[in-house]
Amino acid sequence: MAKRLIPFDKIANEHPCFLDPEERPDWRGLFQNSNPLKLEIGFGNGNFLIDMAIREPQSNFIGMDFYHKGIRKIVTRMDRLHIKNIRVAYGNASEKIPILFEEGEVSEVFINFPDPWPKKRHHKRRLIKPQFVETLAGKLAPQGKVHIATDFESYAQEILEVMQANTQFCNPHEDMGFLHERNDIPKTKYEKAFLDAGKKIYYFEFSKEQDYALAPTA
Domain limits of the chain? Predict the structure, then answer.
């Protein structure tokens, strides 16, 4: 028997783990600790985020999305599993990230299978663009990481070009630019389906360089 999902209106109006903020929240106060902040952009049905929160209880996770059914699914599961280290932020990542985090506040970002907007006239809607990457670089702590996965080859090439054009990031896999497998973090629902179907997946992992501007001069 299918689990009944909490209505979105009830979540938006009453649930303590749901946020639709217009200014930066007090993350330390919300989580009642100062554990590292890790962000997933576009969490879908929430399985990856929940798996990560269970796997890393000493990290605080923020999932950002505007898909109502996905929010209902993840919050319902969070309640059922008594997960306390996730907060759900409602809204568009490009608009919300600049106000949600201070500079250098995020330790890790996960972007799993962002919409590739395959039609050429829609490419401008793709998430991974230079301005967005610059925003991420500002919010990431030194040596913070961005993990990205896509099954769309032309988008993978664009992601690689955009990320490598930003000098604040380094790519530890410069020989190929990406990996074809990723075994150190959980797999998403769509990722498992793609792999079962024999599809090729492009995995990226970029690290933010140390802030040399703060280093002492000789």
Answer: 8-214
> What digits encode the pLDDT tens for the residues 4-49?
899 999 999 999 999 998 999 999 999 999 999 999 999 999 999 9
For residue 195, CA distances in Å to 4, 144, 176, 183, 202 come to 30, 28, 20, 13, 11
At the topology level, CATH places domain 8-214 in Rossmann fold (3.40.50)
3-state SS assignment for residue 91: coil
Catalytic site residue from 65, 115, 196, 211: 115
151 is catalytic: no
Residue 136 CB-density burial (10 A; 0-12 exposed, 13-18 middle, 19+ buried) = buried
Q: Identify the three-state secondary structure at position 6.
A: coil
For the sheet with 169-170, list strands across it: 18-19, 86-90, 60-65, 37-41, 106-112, 140-150, 202-208, 169-170
Q: Rounded to two decimals, what is the model's pTM? A: 0.92
Task: Give the three-state DSSP class for 73.
Answer: helix
